[in-house]
């Protein structure tokens, strides 16, 4: 059996409470997101904090309940957390709402190719945990754009390597490819912005 012991377990299993805050939440036949992720191999973030008068991405990412699943995922990876804490690295975070992540046909750490190659036990045991952790990291990095301000039409590669851009349609920001609507810009801080996405696309 998988022995996922990440702190994401209580976060994911408590989603029934979180969903109260998600206006877009749709009923699901099965809201069990399965086991939480294994602990990351990365060490805890050690980057120096910015000065007390500067608000940065790490200060605000966890403030909006509607994206706390994605915010929790980012904390599993020290290099990503360190980026959000670094006032010299500008970033646009494309954070999907909780309900969009819950509607995914598979968990963010699952890859159909893994099941094709390895069968239903693809994420069992230590190798499976490592495989799942790698997939989750790719999912998170696919939603981190190393640019801010990010100009309309400017094509930028995510940390996962996929190319993205955004355009305005009837006054609404839409991330491409995939026509992913930006519900709001939750935060604008010294080293970037947090954009809340209404749906999910893997930009890897």
UniProtKB/TrEMBL annotation:
Signal peptide as annotated in the record: 1-22
Compositionally biased region (Polar residues): 40-51
Alphabetical UniProt keywords: Signal
Residue span of region Disordered: 29-51
Top-level lineage group: Eukaryota
SUPFAM superfamilies linked: FAS1 domain
InterPro entries: FAS1_dom_sf (IPR036378), FAS1_domain (IPR000782), Mug57-like (IPR040200)
FAS1 domain mapped to chain residues: 54-201
Record flagged with keyword Signal: yes
PANTHER family registered for this protein in UniProt: FAS1 DOMAIN-CONTAINING PROTEIN YDR262W
Organism, scientific name: Hyaloscypha hepaticicola
This protein's name: FAS1 domain-containing protein
């Amino acid at each position: 059996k998988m022995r996922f012991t990440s702190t994401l377990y209580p976060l994911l299993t408590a989603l029934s409470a979180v969903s109260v805050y998600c206006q877009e939440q749709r009923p699901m036949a099965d809201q069990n997101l399965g086991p939480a992720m294994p602990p990351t191999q990365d060490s805890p973030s050690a980057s120096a904090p910015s000065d007390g008068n500067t608000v940065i991405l790490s200060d605000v990412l966890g403030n909006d309940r509607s994206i706390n699943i994605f915010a929790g995922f980012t904390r599993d990876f020290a290099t990503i957390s360190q980026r959000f804490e670094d006032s010299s690295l500008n970033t646009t975070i494309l954070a999907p709402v909780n309900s969009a992540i819950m509607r995914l046909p598979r968990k963010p750490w699952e890859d159909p190719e893994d099941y094709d190659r390895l069968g239903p036990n693809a994420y069992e045991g230590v190798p499976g945990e490592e495989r799942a952790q790698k997939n989750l990291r790719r999912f998170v990095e696919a939603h981190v754009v190393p640019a801010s301000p990010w100009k309309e039409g400017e094509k930028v590669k995510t940390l996962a390597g996929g190319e993205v851009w955004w355009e305005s349609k009837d006054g609404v920001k839409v991330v491409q490819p995939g026509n992913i609507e930006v519900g709001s810009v939750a935060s604008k801080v010294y080293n970037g912005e947090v954009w809340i996405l209404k749906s999910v696309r893997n930009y890897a």
